[in-house]
From TrEMBL:
One of the GO BP terms on file: proteolysis
Domain Peptidase C1A papain C-terminal: 130-339
InterPro entries: Papain-like_cys_pep_sf (IPR038765), Pept_cys_AS (IPR000169), Peptidase_C1A (IPR013128), Peptidase_C1A_C (IPR000668), Peptidase_C1A_papain-like (IPR039417), Prot_inhib_I29 (IPR013201)
Species in which this protein is naturally found: Spodoptera littoralis
Protein name, entry field: Uncharacterized protein
Amino acid sequence: MKALNVTKCSTKKSSEFVQRHILNGLIVHPELPDWHWHQYKSVHKKAYATPHHELEALTKWLDNLYLVAQHNRDFLLGKQSYSLHLNLFGDLDVKEYFDKFLKLFRTIPLFDPAEDRHKTAYRNSLHNAVPKSFDWRSKGFKPKLEQQHECGACYAFAVAHALQAQLYRRHGFWGELSPQQIIDCSSKDGNAGCDGGSLRGALRYAAREGLITESQYPYVGKDSTCKYNKFLVRVRARRWATLPYGDEEAVERALATVGPLAVAVNAAPFTFQLYRSGIYDDLFCTSWQLNHAMLLVGYTPDYWILLNWWGKNWGENGYMRIRRGLNRCGVTNLATYVEL
């Protein structure tokens, strides 16, 4: 690995060039100025315990820079449908990223009386016509962009946001609901706080106890003691179910007629980790390994639209588009709807 050289690219013109192209991962300069690394740390609020830890992070960051640049060259040539960049995960290798952030528990879509008795909503929508394209954002549902930090709470965010969407669908507004409550209070349902959990466990909890607003039970990004108060409950899940495994038509229909869906995806590939924009279509994003939960908010004939919890600097301002038709990343394997 070549050391950084601060004597290069020091002019204003060169600085603008580096800012525009290297920061975006479009090219790799053979002697990258070290202020670019400092800028990355500043933008993403990175701090390291020791110089040794920072050197390790820098090494991973440079490795990722080369991967991003190689991929984005193909993107500019029209060989890839999506671009990458050095986002908040730019200083992590794939293993570290996986271990810290992808903690959705594996669940098998078997018959479960606790949920399958609630499948009336899907059955009732079987004969409803749905549009070729649909996006709940265009209907006004635009929740604030969340950042889960180093807490494996994707399952809690997905369920809280699915319920927020139902509030919006019914009342025309939503109150931000508390993922922290699910993190702290749903161990009885098989969840493990920031060490992970399942959509099913979070939904069982939300159906039994209901959720408090985030303003009354704020997110802290770590495990805490349960502070549940039944008198503060804002909403309770009444009906919920997992849709038929891998059925794109069922997912499309439920999304358009019932509301945004909590879904499980395979977020393990480095291209997912460093995704920036475009229609994600990595053939290595298989459908059998589901390790992260997101909210499905829209579709077109070509792609799904999903909301993530990794802040506005990941993806397309916190959102992602994934290719349809191939069940890329397993989007339709464990899609779950909820109703009030």
